[in-house]
Amino acid sequence: MTYQQEIAKAGTLIGGQAHWDGIAPESVARMRLQNRFHTGLDIARATAAIMRRDMAAYDADPAAYTQSLGCWHGFIGQQKLISIKKHFGSTKGKYLYLSGWMIAALRSEFGPLPDQSMHEKTSVPALIEELYTFLRQADARELSLLFRDLDKARETGNEVEIQRLTHAIDNHETHVVPIIADIDAGFGNAEVTYLLAKKMIEAGACALQIENQVSDEKQCGHQDGKVTVPHEDFLAKIRACRYAFLELGVDDGIIVARTDSLGAGLTKQIAYSREPGDLGDQYNSFLDCDEVDLNGIGNGDVIISRDGKLLRPKRLPSNLYQFRSGTGEDRCVLDCITSLRNGADLLWIETEKPHVEQIASMVDRIREVIPNAKLVYNNSPSFNWTLNFRQQIFDRWQAEGKDVSAYDRAKLMSADYDATDLAVEADENIRTFQKDAAARAGIFHHLITLPTYHTAALSTDNLAKDYFGDAGMLGYVAGVQRKEIRQGIACVKHQNMSGSDIGDDHKEYFAGEAALKAGGVRNTMNQFAA
Predict the structure, then answer these.
(1) What's the rounded Cα separation, in Å, for the pair 376 and 443?
(2) 491 is catalytic
């Protein structure tokens, strides 16, 4: 509905009541517009539709890829979306990523934890709910400012401004965007995965990212010691997520199937196989085995039969089984095809470096079977982007026969190389990495998992260095506040950002002229009006 239609609807409702004196239709309309989403399921349904439209747009044109940043607090997510709207005018194609790593490191009641599914399961849906609470408040704040400006325009009789503001209200774009939420390896068996998925969806998540590691051995994708599970175990969890979406009426919810097989050299169990060539047999075919005869079987050995031979998989003292070296890419391709055939919508291949052709080589094979396969890709802070891309340029130049004698490949991170042609070309490749990978390697969504973890640490370090050093208070004023004012950062008016003006609006609705409001002339936030 338009703003005027909302006012008319509220007026009809109020007019039909005998004892609702003092309830103003326009105030009701404003509060309704400021609270567009009543439940997390409303958010999940709306944002799932956004993602589906974006996925279709990417299929038509790979230049229409999407992006997100990981946020560990509702305020961080809110400020990100406010900034996006300020700089780009729209949130289209911009999502939020909820990182299990950051929940473990920053939001667990145990304190900082490694990314090994040790944090409380409930902290995941709690952060989703928190993020959307802050995004909805951003809507309410932005609309509140428009309503106040509209009132001023009416007071001055500025009809052009009234029409402009009414149009802006009618066409207000919400800060509520899709969240891709990390459910790790499901935190247990398929039933646990289903129960947690429901809570995450009820909190507003339209996209769940789940990985094929063992729940109780789960590791960060960029750590060693990763252990995968047979496909049937993982597919049961994909189905659990789908059932959760369907039960809650989010019929187009998105499942992102992540494979860690590229860096995982171990499995906890041998897959169950019914016949040669089935999925379990394909999984087992990657095991590192020794051929044995009946006389060579030792105490406690596990033996499998394939092609008329007896094979003994290599088992470690940890009771884990080892895959053959060099099988990672083949396992990733099989993981991806299998996941897409069994209910997943998007893929996530966790790699050890950001290399377009490495990713593309796997995606090409996947698309031979499933032509519209698309990826979510982790532009990870665990990569040394500078070193990786400088080495990629070095290797390419060397292969092309260019003279690279001026460069030490192992020391290319050095600032001594910053002004060189090699460093300039590497930086340009970093700048265009997302565009290039979207076009060449099927990456629909680019995210950075932990950026706001690092930005919080960096900005705090800079402030601490200056404020506790010789700069004193100037360290804060010049390094923070002056920049906030000049860059138009919304939270420089932190009282407004926290909802003080919205509260004043409500007080006026409730009490009229008797309202005791905080935003009067003595409010020091007025110093930032200039």
Answers:
(1) 6
(2) no
